[in-house]
Amino acid sequence: MRVHGRGGAGSSTPSGWPVNYYGNSGDTSARAISLNGVDVVGFALYASLTFAHISFGVFTADGVNLYDVGIYNAAGALQADIGPTHLPSNTYQTIATVQGAVTLAPGLYLFARTGNANTAQLYGGSGQCWVDAVNVAASVGGQLPASIPAQAVSPAFNGVTFALS
After folding, report:
1. CA–CA dist 127, 98 (Å, integer)
2. Within 13 Å of residue 105, how many CA atoms lie on the same side as its CB?
3. Nearest-angstrom CA–CA distance, 111 and 8
4. What does the alpha-carbon distance between residue 71 and residue 112 come to, in Å, rounded to a whole number?
5. What is the pLDDT of residues 128-162, one digit of tens each?
6. 23 CA to centre of own chain
7. CA 138, CA 119: separation in Å to the nearest integer?
8. pTM
9. Domains of the chain, earliest start first
10. Are the C-beta atoms of 83 and 93 separated by less than 8 Å?
């Protein structure tokens, strides 16, 4: 995982506060999206982060069905998402959040994904995360629900590649 701040090139400590970019893991493999289920990968923020876009790599495209990705806090409340979206090309996508600019405080969060089909796949990574779970809640129409059950810490070495900016 990596965190970048404004300025501070070559520094081990971000110089810009709040941090305006966060990236998790590296592109190595495909991760399926559960049909009408919410899949989550836990990540930790060590500094406040303000973002208005979520970026992720599409491994297998689907221009017919709808998919949503977003961020939940550790208690399971939706913080930001891109809304139901077609994923028609195998490219790295950067999509604005429905909520506009969002600021997250340091803490534990969940990157979540869902779809009204399981055709599309996102790039997966090989980083450590505090949870990696599938079908933790139900979804409808490719839309993430407003809340999901809180997740227990269950360390894993897996993940989905994403960035917030």
Report:
1. 27
2. 2
3. 27
4. 6
5. 778 888 999 999 999 999 999 999 887 776 666 67
6. 10
7. 17
8. 0.83
9. 2-164 (2.60.120)
10. no
